[in-house]
Model the fold of this input.
Amino acid sequence: MVEVLSKIKVEKINQSRLPEVDFDNIIFGKEFSDHMFVAEYKNGEWQNLKIVPYAPINVSPACAALHYGQAIFEGMKAYKNEKGEIFLFRPYDNAKRINISAKRMCMPEIPEEIFMEGLKQLVQIDSDWIPSNEGSSLYIRPFMFASEQLLGVRPSEEYTFIIFTAPVNSYYSVPVNVKVEMEYSRAMEGGVGFAKVAGNYGAALYPAKMGQNNGYQQLIWTDSLTHEYIEESGTMNVMFQIGNKLITPSLDLKTTLSGITRNSVLTLARELGIDVEERRVSVKEIIAAARNGELKDVFGTGTAATIAQIATITFNDERFVLPEISQRELSNQISHKLLNIKKGREIDVRNWVLKL
Ligand code: COI
Done:
């Protein structure tokens, strides 16, 4: 650890951009903090670790990621509480997950100590960028891409790993309307749906845009073979409360991202004594529950989205209006508890937060 620490060179910005930021009116992902952490992979090892001013990077037109898509990322957050204390939420889980994505995409693993030291030092240096108001946080985007100049189709031999950060408010400012997608697919068995691969998001843009043109902020993706089973919602995992059970698609088929917020919500729900089921979830049963009034709560979970209430679900042109947000005891309760944990207001019995 000491070795990694001493290897990170730090070049600070001359003039912070902080005074230009209107923290009350931040658009998600449009403001970026002063610095970024960069590491390069060459000759079989990670090297040249540095924190430098946030700025455009130099890539070759033949950069392999631009052509063959070796690009993966993570999303995580830092929180600041009323006392000015800073907490990272489950950062070791992101450090693990990026390497699951890396393996599937034939990319080198990023050692946990490089990920964590780069992250901690970066967040410390830009700690004034972490908003402390209730719905805000510092969104952290670690990512890795193939940076070798290369036209042949083979795994790149050079990679760049970067972490940059952005102060953010909620990703969805109001409850969202979603449509069950019956034509396009996000993932297939044997594919890369479980990994946080840039191409998963790029491929989803066209169907998502079609949905947005018709008033749906998000799609609910279904399995590519039959479109009968629900998978996820692209920017988030999805959960349904039917009666007193919390039901969510299982991760077995590897077509759904293993969300860290998903895992946190399921853990808290179980601790609250809720009956949780991770299994195949059919569109039919959700529609039947919506029809007979048993569908009490539907929400998405994700780092950016946190817990995003779903207002309506449309299936084959039939729109189901879900219960009023104020009546959704389960997601409201878990949302509140989760924020308290993230802000260090609850004792961290699960070892989820890292205080800086
Ligand atoms: C996240 O929740 O961190 C995501 O990566 C979703 C989205 C912003 C792409």
